[in-house]
Amino acid sequence: MAPEAPAKTRAPAARAAAPRGAARLVRWDVIVTALLIVVFAGGALGTSDFATGDNLSFALGDLSEIALIALPMTLLVVAAEVDLSVASVLGLCSALFGALWNAGWAIETIIPLLILIGALGGLVNGLLVTRLGLPSLAVTIGTMTLYRGLAYVVLGTKAVAQFPQNYADMAVKTVPGTPIPYPFALFVVLAIATAIVLHATGLGRALFAIGAQEEAAFFAGIRVKRIKLLLFVVSGVVAAFAGAVYTLRYGSARADNGIGLELAVIAAVLLGGVDFDGGRGTLGGVVAGVLLIGLLRNLLMLRDVATEIQSIVTGLLLIVSVLTPRIVARVREARRHHRGSLPAPS
Amino acid sequence: MSESPPILALADVSMAFGAVRALQGVSLELRGGEIHALAGENGAGKSTLVKILAGVHRPDEGQVLLDGTPQDFHGPGDAQQAGVAVIYQEPTLFPDLSVAENIFMGRQPRARFGRIDRRAVRAETARLFERLGVTLDPDRAARGLSIADQQIVEIAKALSRDARVLIMDEPTAALSGNEVARLFTVARTLREQGCALLFISHRLEEIFDLCRRVTTLRDGRLIATEELDGLTPEDLVQRMVGRELDALYPKQDTTPGEAVLKVSRLTREGVFTDVSFDVRAGEIVALAGLVGAGRSEVARAVFGVDRYDAGGVQVGGVRLPGGSPTAAMAAGIALVPEDRRQQGLVMAASIERNIGLTGLRSLRRGPVVSRKAERDRAADWAIRLQLKYARLSDAVGVLSGGNQQKVVLAKWLSTEPSVLIVDEPTRGIDVGTKAEVHRLLSELAAQGLAVLMISSDLPEVLGMADRVLVMYEGRLAAEIPRAEATEETVMAAATGRTRQEAA
Q1: What number is the ipTM of this complex?
Q2: What are the chain A neighbours of B368 within 8 Å (beta carbons)?
Q3: Residue A319's CB: how many other CB atoms inside 10 A?
């Protein structure tokens, strides 16, 4: 007994200092960024076609819709809400795009109309959540099915193609001198704007407060319902715009466009370290999460991995990203308890 | 009446939570065939005593004796086994199960093949109700039962477990007159059947009506156990509150100015009715009354977190739209809410973010929130309120209760309000911080702030308030100027005795 005592008395001081540095290092968004670099380097070394300008340009373009929709989704999840109807809004807008184009409408009229439809779809979600107090998970599962159904009503199982070249070009061409396609460049600009909103404005502060403790936010004079309603509308608008991008990029308007896309978006957001229970997360983490998902999908595709396996990988990543921070927290908690119950050295 | 030996007793029990000594050397004997009252102010130690009897807490010193034998309850289960049952103010039943199923939850009589014998459950329940002398349908769902009926179900559940000791912790607080009468009939029936009952109530007339002996606690100490026969309500109040007011309440004299907050005929159906009062600049007005009298609800409606059905609120002569905390804040009202952890603070967020949360507009530089302004505001108030903290970026959850309350105060005072509403400003905080909060409130009032203070702490009310408004069952029962406010006058109004005398 006695010889051990000196070692024990020294330990607590060292332990007390340790968590601060360590906590900084184990921040989830930092881990994801590191993982992103590893995947990129591994891809570049192991797969010859990966690190070419053409492929990266394709990979980023392919990621555009997920990336764009992930931005408002981040704001929603930080506020402890979620929107599962985004892919269906995308599909509905794609179908409308095709139908109206077939009917001879001008694209300059169609796109603003799609955005209005997206705003309406978001408004319905938002009103159901804020006025009726329904959980957004349930509401948007409902509207996910509803909006997809409407998409089939609009276009049936037809596909509309033959969109004008100048608009199609905007969806696939890259910014001159870079491998970055225009839609992804737009994502970069909007990501910066969203990062400012989330991390530097009063609205961002309010979102974190709502997600962490809604009642306290309400008592502090924050217009909780109005803010949530706004988020759902923005989410609908961005999904509608992504629907236009998707349609032009593939040159095909179909009612089933983007099926299952909402899960990739949520996977990217959670992988980026946003707490599904709200109140915690960074936009930098989400950008890293989006890129990581995009690179993985691209790598798996280059290696001719079946799409089923791709979805298995996405699913596993999602689970791991939700689970890991919790396990880390549990282990920390358990350690602290264990320490606490040790008899104090006399 | 011959003295029967006590069924359950406490001998010299002491209990401390950290530095707070909740009970010191308290003894109590509960005899079969007797209803015993437990009296004391909020915070006198009644709840701690009940929790020890119920096996929730184990005393630091002293013993719990069952039929004269020392017991060591390791949890509520042990106490139930020993025949001790507690009926709480608001029972928690399974709403979708029937009354009978609730009573036999987890102990259902079995028929063949392990199936639940529904007929036995129903018959047994009917027998229990008969024994209690009440008519309740064993088959109806618990959902929608009145609180009074829910309590009856709880009592039946206790009897089905052969409870011999029944502790009723403020059972009448939410009951109407008829319901109270029925509960008392049931209690007397149980007394005749040899049970020992401990009855807790703030309503003195109920204690005198129902009980034979009373034990009074004050500040965790036993003041007296005595026969109620020959005692007056005034005697009992004296025992409950008799205490010196000292430097804990450094109230400065002020000359009140204009009425800043005007509340007129405010009504929320079923919660409070026709509440009118003014608070003037430089004045501390206390809103006193028992828990459940509607005080916090009035404050919440004034601030706009709850709606109201009739009446109005004016600040500085301007009428507020109801139901909007944002509008109330813009008009100059600040509310330090009752529930610090749920309503006052975002526990996971930092000190500076919490203090900044009420000033997101004023901290703006261009479109963004200035981190420097946010930090300066927090640092400034941290110094003014002598907040004890390591870093402003630490989560408020790691602070002590008193320091958390200072953060809530900082959060609201930094909005520079003209009306400050504080709901239980010193509940659950240590004596030192309590005195600091009182000094702060007094200074703020001296500087011209209108303060409305809700408090269940009578000495605090008497020590701090220029005027005392007393609520009783959703209405303003009395307005008492500082000079006339005593523990007796306030308690009389809060327990409805003033009105009875007037009627």
Answers
A1: 0.81
A2: 196, 200-201
A3: 12
Chain A residues within an 8 Å CB radius of B349: 208-209, 212, 279
Q: What is the largest CA-CA distance in chain A?
A: 91
Domain ranges, ordered by start, for chain A: 20-32+58-331
- CA distance to partner chain A, nearest, from residue B357 (Å): 7
Neighboring chain A residues of B300 at a CB cutoff of 8 Å: none
Domain A20-32+58-331 bears CATH identifier 1.10.3470: yes
**Reduced to 3 states, what is the DSSP secondary structure of residue A265?**
helix
**Whole-structure pTM over 0.90, yes or no?**
no
Give pLDDT tens digits along chain A (346 positions): 333 333 333 333 333 333 444 454 467 778 888 989 999 998 899 888 888 889 999 999 999 999 999 999 999 999 999 999 999 999 999 999 999 999 999 999 999 999 999 999 999 999 999 999 999 999 999 999 999 999 999 999 999 998 999 898 889 899 998 999 999 999 999 999 999 999 999 999 999 999 999 999 999 999 999 999 999 999 999 999 999 999 999 999 999 999 989 999 999 999 998 999 999 999 999 999 999 999 988 998 888 888 888 888 878 888 887 787 778 777 776 765 554 444 433 3
State whether residue B370 is helix, strand or coil. Answer: coil
Q: Cα dist. B396→A78, A328, B50, B358 in Å? A: 19, 22, 32, 16
CA-based nearest distance A193→chain B, Å: 11
Burial of A16 (0-12, 13-18, 19+ CB in 10 A): exposed
The DSSP bridge pattern shows strands B333-336 and B364-365 to be unpaired
SS3 content of chain A, % helix, strand, coil (to 5): 75, 0, 20
